[in-house]
Amino acid sequence: MVAEALAMRGLRPFLGLFLILIALGAYLYFVESKREPGDEDKRDKVFTVQADAIEEITIKSESGERTTLRKSGSDWQMVEPLTAQPDSAEVSGLTSNISNLEVQRVIDENPSDLGEYGLASPRVELAFKTGGQERRLLIGRKTPPGTDLYAKLGDQPRVFLISSYLDSTFNRNTFDLRDKTVLKLERDKVDSLAISTPQHTVRFLKSGPEWRLKAPVDARADSTAVEGIVSRLNTLQMKSIAAPEASRLADYGLDQPAATVQIGSGSSQATLLVGKAAGEGAVFARDQSRPAVITIESSLLDDLKKEPGAWRQQDLFDARAFNSTRIDVVRGGRTLSFEKTTVKNKEGQDEEKWRQVAPSTQDADKAKLDNLLSAVTQARASSYTDSTAKTGLDAPLVTVTVKSDEGRRTETVAFARSGTDAYAARTGEPGAAQIDSSTVDNIIKALDELQQAKPAEKQQPPDNKEKGGM
Fold first, then answer.
1. What average pLDDT does the chain have?
2. Structure pTM?
3. Could you tell me if residue 466 is left (phi over 0), alpha (psi between -120 and 50 degrees) or otherwise beta?
């Protein structure tokens, strides 16, 4: 008896699989085998309608939600079950696919039982209006291979196939079809940004193409990082709607937000409140101008919580070796100064040349001078500290001034060591930057090699005016 029971138990899955194979075989025989060669070139359109002639669309999704979109002029509006802005990409996908929808194959001109196609109670219903007339499409289950969907028109008995990929286009609920943009911004006019958390507030202002940090200190900002967060806020999408109208913001951590973002665009301003976790990968949020509480990607909150120093420009110099025109180096009380000049070579062509102009005048080794400029202008901060105390910057090892952009820009940075750590301070900016100790080593090494290089030409010491150095 036990053996018989075990045998029956093992047989049942086999019988189930066998029946599925029979059903699939029957489908392939009765449907696929009847396709005529070249059928794919003879497919009829389900509807004869141009996409831009569609005036209204109503979808009842598999979940049972019914959503209506209506066109007014050239714009679309969601009108049921609520009034909202629709997702323009979703609307475009619907109108385009309705216009281009093709009959893959007619299955039954006059079916006796719609239930076998899942059309007695259709999973998805789509209706649209054009010229005041309504057309309806009913969509049932997938065919056994999963390549097509059974479908029929609301006013005709015949059952036909449409491509299964259209299920993801037509089976859309209200949230799928609405515009999920969190903040309405004029991206090209954004000129201010403030991010507040319980720990700190950072504030930025934009002047031309560049951003500047204004709080908690006045310093250069990492414009790429600021532009990145602005772009992310501009394209931020809601993951879900937690509450159309929230009576208790404390339930979502929005009474004391984890972060508050204020974005200025000319005279207008948008404010986003970010609250507590809303499940894995999401946090609650709210556009202060709208009543709904939504969820967004939690990774945004991680970026908003960055320390103020992380928003500062990490490059200590804006100048680069190729656009530098003068460099002054103070080391041990002695100043070395070099200037870039343009001379004619033997062929009569302009050629850039570096010359030492203080404390004496002579040609400089261009390759070694470029090495020094590269070591200096590639210096980067790994972090910032508010104070220069205990950094060694009260007695720097070397101070470098670089002029660039044909002398329009002048930047000065001092470099120092404190124990095994290295620091730098940029004139005109608060605090100190911690840097990799190898940065100072590379600057000193490049400077030593430049001074040891044999000059190509020696001249008399410069007059008193040239001895002014910097």
1. 89
2. 0.78
3. alpha
